[in-house]
Every structure is written in structure tokens, then in C-alpha cells.
Amino acid sequence: PPTLQMLPSNGQSTTRKGGPVSFECRASGNPTPVVQWSKKDGLLPSGMQVQTGYLLSLSDVQRQHGGIYECTASNGIGQPVTGTINLHVLYPPEVNVLRSWVNSGEGLEAKLDCVVHADPPAEVLWYQNSFLLQPTDRRLMSHQGLTHSLMIRNLQLSDFGNYSCSVVNSIGKEKKYIELSGKPGPPSITSAQYSNPHDYDLTWTVQSVFPILEVRILYRMMQINASYHHPGQWHDLLVRPHQIFNAVTGERRQSYHLVNLQADSVYECLVQTKNQHGFGELSDLHQWFTSQKGRPLVRSSSASKSCHPLATIAAAMIIVSVALC
After folding, report:
1. Where do the segments described as Disordered lie (predicted)?
2. Dihedral in degrees, nearest 10, Cα atoms 294, 297, 298, 299
3. Tens-place pLDDT, residues 254-302
């Protein structure tokens, strides 16, 4: 039956992120055993479930490659034998924020979160506008698992601004930013990509603990053919549409009915909302296509997959920039 000799012999291997590492699993027996590598609770870094051969070499090791690697040898005589090597990867901090923009208001509270991966363990520091923050009775710093949080109670105007989560260990450092603001967030446009020939229901949601007082809608028609695209003039509207507030998510849902559109055309728009703290950021650019004159809008799921001729042209041209004059 097969026997194994593992290298490293203690079953432990430590390396830095980005470096190479190799494991050996030499097997003897008669007949000559077949040696296969696998990773416990996951795939090998190559993406394969099993790899054959006594040598397993990894290049450009990443944090996710850490874990237990198993070598199994079998030759049909007796039971297969298995050896393990535990790979420990050291790496500089990797930081992600749950939300890069947080909306709140005076007298309320706000919670800023960053998720930290680091080995060796890292120190997490919070800054506001480049000034190091210390815990106070209103400012609480905590962590649970990988998530580090800054909780600010009874918000004041001075608390609004740019925050950073700075993470340092012996290998490196990383910093991510979070904006805390009383202004509305950038609207998220939820409207369909197709409309009736001459009108369109523009809908969006926006994060704002305070009521939306005013909405700015910028829209224009794109003149497109197979060889060029030429943007038309922006229409700039200031409106006050009805809003539905979701107290659980902090989102406000609004809509506005655009009229006097041109049939069989491509339109694009931007939305910006305002509360008592001022105007927030613009939404991402949204495009839609008006149907042909006299042709009813089909709302079935299959229609959403159909190819509008102008949509094909627009997609092929890949419009990636907008200039507001």
C-alpha cells in the first residue's frame, strides 16, 4: 500500500501575498501510487478541484489561497492515504466600506462601517477631514468580526464631512473614505429602458432622512445614426413631485411624467434632488428609447429582451461621457 512523505514535513507553510510557494507529496508503493492534490472546502487556485502530480506549485499567492491542502495517494492496495499542509498567507490590509456615502441629520445618529482583512492583525484608526478621532460620549468605536464601526450620536453640523478608515499592519496599510452628509444621496433611476412614443414615466429612489424639497431633471434627445451621434440641447426642469418614504431603508421614491417626446428616439437624463441641507449629487446617466409612432408599448418580459434598432446603434457606439455646459 502507499506511504507518504510531505514537504514541508511539519505540515505548515507561511508565505507573503504575491509570492510563490510549493508543496511536495512523495509517495511510494507497489504499484506506483497516483498522487492527487485538492483543497479542503474549496477549489485549488488553478480553479480545478483535483490536480495530479507529486508537486503543487502556486505563483502570485493571494489571501484567498490560504487554507488546508490535501494530498491523497492510492494504488489499489489497501486504503488511500492522505497528508495535509496548512498554508498561512501574510498580507497587507484589504479594506472595503459597506457604504461610501451615509446620509443622516442633526440630532440623529450615523454608523460608518469598514470591513478589514489583514494578517498580521491590523490597527484601525478613524479620521475626519484628516484629523485623528478619539472616542467620546457621542463617538463610539467598535468592531465585530471583520467589521469595524464608528457610531456618532446626536449629530451636529460639525460632524458632517469626509471620514476615512485607516488600517495598518507590519506589512502595509490601506485607507478607504466615507462621506457623512445631511444632503440627499445620488438618485438611483429605476425606470424602464423603453417608453411610449411621446411620454415617459421617470422614476427614482434617493436616500434622504429629510423630505425632498425640489428635484432637478436634465434630459435631452440623442440624434444617432450608423456613423455618428449628436446630443441635443438639455431640458432643465425644477419640479416638486410626490414622495413615498420608506422608514426602514431611509429611501424616498419619486416619479415625474415627461411629455412632448419624439417617437423612435434615444433620450438620456440626469436627476438631482434637494432637501433642507441643499442639493445632493447627480444620478448616473440614464438612457431610454421611445417606441415608434402609433405603436403601443409592449410591457411583457419578452419585449424587454427585444432589440430596438436605435438601441443597437447606441450600444455599438458605447456612449461613455456627458458634458454639461
Report:
1. 1-20
2. -170
3. 999 999 999 999 999 999 999 999 999 999 999 999 998 876 665 533 3
